[in-house]
Amino acid sequence: MAFPQGPSLCLRRCGYCMLKQPMRAKHCQVCQHCVRRYDHHCPWIENCVGERNHALFLVYLAVQLAVLLWALLVAWSGLGGGPLSWAWLRHRALLLLAFLAMAVLAVVAVLLLASHLYLAACNTTTWEFMSRHRISYLKHCEAENPFDRGVLRNLWRFFCSRRLVAWEQLYSPEDGGAV
């Protein structure tokens, strides 16, 4: 259902739970409920990431990255010392494999954290970024992102504002997306 332009936007009904969905909400097929400002369903935390916990999810990613970096430092200290030889490799093979696995996971954590910080700075979600062409209120929007208010205001709202936002009142596709 397309939202009409102007200040009086209709709320659409969820096709699964039949509740009126606020703008930017999506029904999660895994959790079986609608999530405000839906970003994604995270299998690692076994929960959806949305308006109320997205900032905490970024803190979670930052903590995971810090733990991985600390573990890399500990593993590196265990790898040091002695010339490279078959005996050295045989005694430290498991530690070397663990170091390499943690390095890969640290790269993944850095990329996830950077991408979510970018999305927060743009005031968009993973779902909106990946599925823009399928989302009714973004499909025909003139602006790239009608919810973008500038990096500082977006980050302030993302990290510091705990109140729920009525996105329908801020959405204005006809004036170039100024919200």
UniProtKB/TrEMBL annotation:
Organism phylogeny: Eukaryota, Metazoa, Chordata, Craniata, Vertebrata
Species per Swiss-Prot/TrEMBL record: Varanus komodoensis (Komodo dragon)
Record family assignment: Belongs to the DHHC palmitoyltransferase family.
Subcellular location: Endomembrane system
A Pfam entry, by short name: DHHC
EC number(s) from the headed UniProt entry: 2.3.1.225
Protein name: Palmitoyltransferase
Keywords assigned: Acyltransferase, Lipoprotein, Membrane, Palmitate, Transferase, Transmembrane, Transmembrane helix
Domain notes: The DHHC domain is required for palmitoyltransferase activity.
TM stretches of this protein: 57-81, 93-119
Reactions it catalyzes: L-cysteinyl-[protein] + hexadecanoyl-CoA = S-hexadecanoyl-L-cysteinyl-[protein] + CoA
Chief place where the protein resides: membrane
A GO MF term: protein-cysteine S-palmitoyltransferase activity
InterPro entries the record matches: Palmitoyltrfase_DHHC, PFA4/ZDH16/20/ERF2-like
Membrane topology category: Multi-pass membrane protein
Single GO cellular component term: endoplasmic reticulum
Record domain Palmitoyltransferase DHHC: where: 13-131
